[in-house]
Write a structure and sequence with these properties.
alpha+beta; Arp2/3 complex 21 kDa subunit ARPC3; Phosphatase 2c, domain 1; five-stranded antiparallel sheet
């Protein structure tokens, strides 16, 4: 046995050294030249390798592998500023994103790629590097599963053995320490890039004096009437010039008709003066715009770096293992399973950290399709621990061996039935409202509703983009408040014109029944428990208007039969009276099925609007049901 293990380790070491040699060779070979300079294919090879080794049970292998290749880049002098967040961030996400199968690789590669594309978009060499990562992702997705498993087995052979549990714990602990260090580094970067407050009033006065000085320098210093205008009649000249500047500030190109008083009668360089005023103010407006955009971008960078620091710290908490608590419990539970006749059972406790669920990983001898995992192991451990447990993932006969590996997690006690009705504004084919509903992990239900500014395609574009970005950030594990602030900053930076969207963010914990609702500038949301109806309103501005959003927050616990109704402005503002027709309808109705209630409310909306829907209308009904069945 020991000799076999050593042989596997030697084979794995051979493959690792071969991979490193191939990567080193690829860093030296230029295949062709592009706009950004010479293009090599070393990152195409690297990303395929990272995805292969992190696809199997040894997902943490991608973390040290990414670090090794980062050091290789540094050694050969090809390290770039974006390599650490791009390669390091991808390898971390491949290891820790709570998404099963190949789908984990898509956000693991694309999220760091998008971040680097935003921060370093002016670097010519960036796009050639990022293109290789995207190309590697596409290639990986088309590699046959049998080939991926064979490659992963070759590269990770010798990593699983009697000491695998100890190595895993040590690696998790070290990874947590590194994540905390990275979190501290990004937090310090955030403080570094934090904009320094300036005295706005004094800065404004200095800018005004600079404009007047420039106008006088170009037109008045050489004029024989300089002393008359700027000494004897200084106040009158100042006031008349200030009036001209005011016209230009409002977007008007001044001409002779805008000259009044002393300047109209005495100025000998009227045309030159008007040309200078238009030109200087145009330059000043452009400079002010870009200074403001720079300040916004600086503030955005500081806030996002601080948020990334928090995210890394959260990942460290999730990764950290309480070494003093688990071994004894794992041993006792494993012994309990073996006593009950579960042959070869070995149990490991996978802690979820502050924001996750603790899971149980069980490895045992294969049962030949008798579903021992569901019918024996899950009920036995549930009785021992006092939890309701369900099998969430598993691999029977893994790697061709007579072994099974599966995970158990607390079984959700609730399900959510959904129904949506949408009607675009009369005369439009597309609704400006957007929504999304999905599961995050096995226990968290997410519903999003956005109402873009205006109606039709233009409104739909901004609301869909906001909903998609919010969904991606929440699935990646970012905190809700941080995700909302990031989305607000992105809309401010990405849309110089006035574009905004409302946002309803609904999260329901299917295990505990806890509900969280964030509302930003949106129409009321209704929570119905039996005959009682609670209305949650938002007094905040929509996303994309002001630098900082202040969402309305609601938290409660829902139970079997409770209903949540989310609507857009098109539904909330119907009718000519001040009475809340939705509140009245929900109090009066005894209907508690999502589909029939949504249709009932839609018919009432048509009656309330007298058949003329004058805004995009959306109604989402969420029905909470107690889950009486077991399952994955």
């Amino acid at each position: 046995m020991e000799r076999t293990k050593q042989t596997k380790e030697r084979k794995a070491l051979t493959f690792w050294l071969l991979a490193l040699i191939i990567y080193f060779v690829l860093t030296q070979v230029v295949f062709f030249s592009g706009v950004g300079g010479p293009i090599r294919l070393n990152y195409l090879f690297l990303f395929i390798l990272l995805m292969v080794v992190s696809f199997g049970p040894n997902v943490l292998t991608s973390v040290p592998l990414g670090l090794v290749f980062l050091l290789t880049d540094l050694a050969v002098g090809q390290a770039k500023p974006w390599h650490l967040p791009w390669i390091g961030g991808s390898s971390l996400l491949m290891a820790f994103l709570p998404i099963k199968g190949r789908g984990r690789m898509v956000p693991a590669v694309l999220l760091p790629t998008v971040v680097c594309a935003v921060w370093w978009r002016s670097a010519p060499e960036l796009w050639a590097d990022l293109g290789q990562g995207v190309l590697a992702l596409l290639a990986f997705l088309f590699i046959p599963s049998t080939t991926r498993v064979r490659w992963e087995k070759r590269f990770t052979a010798g990593l699983v053995g009697p000491a695998a549990d100890t190595k895993r714990r040590l690696l998790w602990t070290e990874s947590a320490a590194r994540l905390r260090s990275l979190g501290a580094f990004f937090r310090e970067l955030g403080r570094t890039f934090q904009p320094v407050p300036t005295a706005d009033a004094s800065a404004g006065k200095e800018e005004a004096f600079a404009v007047f000085e420039e106008i006088a320098k170009q037109n008045c210093f050489s004029c024989p009437k300089y002393d008359l205008c700027w000494k004897e009649r200084f106040y009158q000249t100042y006031r008349e010039l200030f009036t001209l500047l005011g016209w230009v500030e409002m977007g008007v190109k001044v001409d002779f008709s805008h000259l009044k008083g002393h300047l109209a009668a005495e100025c000998t360089k009227k045309q030159s003066l008007l040309t200078t005023v238009n030109l200087v103010m145009g330059q000043e407006r452009t400079g002010h715009y870009w200074r403001r955009r720079y300040a916004e971008a600086q503030f955005f960078l500081a806030e996002r770096l601080t948020g990334v620091a928090g995210f890394l710290t959260q990942m460290a908490e999730t990764t950290a293992v309480r070494l003093d608590d688990f071994p004894e419990s794992e041993h006792k539970l494993s012994r309990t399973l073996r006593k009950a006749g579960v042959h070869g059972a070995q149990l490991s406790i996978l802690p979820g950290g502050k924001h996750g669920r603790t899971r149980l990983m069980v490895e045992k001898r294969a049962c030949g399709g008798a579903q021992e995992c569901r019918l024996v192991v899950a009920p036995l451990l549930a009785k021992t621990l006092g939890w309701r447990l369900a099998v969430t993932s598993g691999e029977c006969g893994r790697k061709g061996e007579d072994q099974c590996l599966f995970c158990l997690a607390p079984e959700p006690g609730y399900t959510v039935r959904t129904a949506v009705v949408q009607v675009p504004k009369k005369g439009n084919q597309v609704s400006g409202d957007s929504f999304r509903m999905r599961m995050i992990r096995d226990d968290l239900f997410l519903a999003l509703l956005g109402d873009g500014m205006g109606v039709g395609k233009a409104a739909a574009r901004i609301s869909r983009a906001a909903i998609k970005l919010m969904e991606d950030m929440l699935v990646a594990g970012f905190e809700k408040s941080f995700a909302l602030q990031s989305l607000n900053s992105l809309l401010l930076l990405a849309t110089p014109e006035e574009e905004f969207t409302t946002m309803d963010l609904f999260l329901f914990d299917r295990i505990t029944g806890e509900v969280e609702l964030f509302k930003v500038g949106s129409a009321p949301t209704y929570v119905k428990k039996h005959r009682e109806v609670q209305v949650i309103r938002s007094a905040s501005l929509p996303i994309g208007i002001v630098p900082k959003v202040d969402p309305e927050y609601y938290r409660d616990f829902l139970d079997d039969g409770d209903l949540v109704v989310m609507v857009s402005d098109g539904a909330a503002t119907l009718g000519t009276t001040q009475e809340d027709w939705l509140l009245k309808a929900l109090k009066r109705s005894s209907e508690n099925a999502a589909e029939s209630l949504s249709q009932y409310l839609l018919e009432l909306a048509r009656i309330e609007a007298d058949g003329d829907i004058n805004d995009d209308l959306s109604i989402i009904v969420l029905q909470i049901e107690s889950s009486g069945r077991c399952g994955a």
